Amino acid sequence: xxxxxxxxxxxxxxxxxxxxxxxxxxxxxxxxxxxxxxxxxxxxxxxxxxxxxxxxxxxxxxxxxxxxxxxxxxxxxxxxxxxxxxxxxxxxxxxxxxxxxxxxxxxxxxxxxxxxxxxxxxxxxxxxxxxxxxxxxxxxxxxxxxxxxxxxxxxxxxxxxxxxxxxxxxxxxxxxxxxxxxxxxxxxxxxxxxxxxxxxxxxxxxxxxxxxxxxxxxxxxxxxxxxxxxxxxxxxxxx
Length: 239
Fold this sequence. Notes:
Distance between the termini: 52 Å
CATH architecture of the largest domain: Sandwich
CATH superfamily of the largest domain: Jelly Rolls
Number of helices: 9
Strand order of the largest sheet: 3-10-5-8
Largest sheet: 4 strands, antiparallel
Order of helices and strands: EEHHHEEEEEEEEHHHEHHEEH
Structural class: alpha+beta
CATH class of the largest domain: Mainly Beta
């Protein structure tokens, strides 16, 4: 078992552990920490391995940790009183999640988290991270900036859900990670089921499939299983 800065790696070698630590260090949430602060935060951190469909935490469970996703895909979702599932966010490699719970009253997870594929995560204690923030106003301001960026993204998403129609929301999701200077065709790979993606953009699975078919007929995209080729990015953006 390798151990770097207190981080335990039960199933990976030292070289992999160093790579993971570097990836964590480059994440926006951790890049503003000093070396000493980073050591404090990671002193009790641990890696976790999830199998596909395994639940990481349940809604309303007391929150003691937030997470950095090193590999795989995680869905954050809520269940309605009648049992219907609504996907709130899809977490991909390199992203953190649940960190905002540190600043919430009661500190309970507001969503469920479930692995959509085999996943490797780093679990960070909220208590250790809060201790760093309490001892440094400068670091607190940096983290506030990080949270503000996330909030801005959520506000934009609310606008999309309330103003845009279903077709526009699907197109927006297709374009979300496409660089401004990307050429065509541009390939988008979806590892998660279409039912999950449909829930993420608040449309029914059959509507999601129909919209993809319409875009294909308009020769704007080409769909092959979980791979989508964006054939005309300019026209897609004009929507």
